[in-house]
Amino acid sequence: MDDFQGRRTHESAEGSTADERLAELFAFLRRRVTGEYEIDEFGFDPELNEKVLLEALRPLYRHWFRAEALGLGNVPADRGALIVANHSGTLPVDALMLQVAVHDELGRPLRLLGAHLVYQLPVLGHLARKSGHTLACPEDADRLLRKGEVVGVFPEGFKGIGKPFSERYRLQRFGRGGFVASAIRAGVPIVPCAIVGAEEIYPKIGDIPALARLLGLPYLPITPLFPWLGPLGLLPLPSKWLIEFGEPIRTDEYAPEEADDPMLVFDLTDHVRETMQRQLDALRLRRGPAFPPIVL
Amino acid sequence: MNTHTPGEASMTRTVLVTGVSGHIGARVAIALAADPEIDRVIGVDTAPPPSPAGEDGAVLGRTEFVRVALRSPDLIKVIRDADVDTVVHLSLVSGPGGGRVSGTGGGRPAMKEHNVIGTMQLLAACQRSATVRRVVVRSTTAVYGSSPHAPAVFTEDTEPVEVSHSGYARDATEVETYVRGFARRRPDVTTTTLRFATLMGPRVDSPLTSYFSQPVLPTVLGFDPRLQFVHEDDAVEVLCRTARADHPGVFNVAGDGVLLLSQCARRTGRPVIPMPSPAFRFVSGLARGARLVDFSPEQLALMSHGRAVDTTRLAAELGWRPKYSTAAAFDDFLRSRGGPGDLPRALVDWLADFVTGR
Questions:
Q1: A33 touching B, CB under 8 A?
Q2: Which domains does chain A have, with CATH numbers?
Q3: In whole angstroms, what is the distance from residue A249 CA to residue A83 CA?
Q4: Direct distance between the N- and C-terminal alpha carbons of chain B, in angstroms, rounded to an integer
Q5: What is the per-residue pLDDT across B23-66, written as a single tens digit (0 to 9) for each?
Q6: At what angle do helices B297-305 and B167-185 cross, to 10 degrees?
Q7: To probe the interface with B, which of A32, A33, A38, A45 has the most B CB atoms within 10 Å?
């Protein structure tokens, strides 16, 4: 909350009068309608991200989930890093909130590595690119890390985000450890990140696999509110969120070629996973109940 | 244009340029012919160069034009008799509609014959030749395809995720295969393959430049592809540099940076009509029939998924970067077409004045 107020005062100092702010808005509009803005080679549009996309997510982060970010000092301020986080919540709201946390609390854009599915879908694919994300493949991961970006990855993938509510806060199997190899190649630290709160937003109590297959989706969830309440069932439950960045795990003591040593990659992947599970358990205890007791 | 890599052997004497009736081919031939270190430039093509209404009277300057099909035995004779030492192969055509293969009736089979069989014949002639020591081939970044499953930025070593099944991209892929085979069999010959991004500039006539000249721009709903352009001047410069000195290997050629299709459209100031992918295909079919815009299947994929390439290898090899960024190349093209429409900007200005009460 301190950070939130800090940002506000900072903002009002920047555009002191309403006139200036209005002029700024029109300058923004003029740039947008004439296409005079820059995007990077991945399609990242920093201005759109900052002024429109993140702006739409901030109320959710601050007021709906009352999210707090911890361990901010563990993310390097000006170098590349690989944030490895747990994935949960049926819909990837945790990815969006992590993006707000890294951008607003650390002042750096987060470049997530996303599933193929995202980039196949209309609208979603290009919005993901415009907010700085790209496909989870070694080429893109290496490239972003070499450029010194903060890259985020959810190694559990669909296994994590689509797991039933009964398995909440239990890390699923990590993929093939490609993220560890990328970190070793780039020599950047791995920052384990625990996200507590996303598990409760859409408690997945059932699945309709046949229909999911038909729609080409990895799963089709049943939650206490969905599909019973229709679109209203898409409203995430207002759980309390904590996002904690853990102590960085160094990879620069390995030579880049050691990324090709599968044993090393397996071991390091396991180490990261165990660290994250411990971190997740502790953070869950620290948060306490997901929802405040209802006082009548 | 006259900067030479130091230590370059002064052996470059006779250059053969294929596809010399095309815009880029003609410009490369003129630039090379103007180079005092090059004695002779022979231009070949299936059709004669456009009538000399151009700037300096003779369109091709000092270049000697020989009208010959790549797949005819005459070509072997030309290479042998003229002691050609450098071959610049630019005659890859991107669509069956182009007039340059019309000599054989046109259509996709003729295009493939021209592109693939023509290249095979040319390389066969080069392999036989005792004088050829440098071969430069124009290819395209379309060989990487456009796919949501591919890396965001292609380097020269990236294998395409899905091999293109259609037209130009497939021809270029096959051409590159033959070039690799040739390079293996004749390691003493320096082989350069240049993969060009979409050409852009005042005098470029391509499906994409005709697309951006339409009064309204149809786009694929829900997609906003990344596009990359290389300015025609830069393309000519790269071809001349690789024709004058040894730069073996495969190189991507593109202006710095990328533009989104939406950004390009906004820069033109023209309205866009987003439509679902099937409707977009239907409309581009109509446009093709009406000879407005000749989009091939791989260009349709490009309009959904886009493509960007890494150009650091070229910059490191040549010690040179394209003068025009992707955005600058596009703006230069727009200027030549009467500049962007100003309606959206005017609207914002009007709104600003209205709100601030001026």
A1: yes
A2: 42-201+236-287 (3.40.1130.10)
A3: 10
A4: 52
A5: 899 999 999 999 988 999 999 888 877 654 444 334 566 778 88
A6: 100
A7: A33
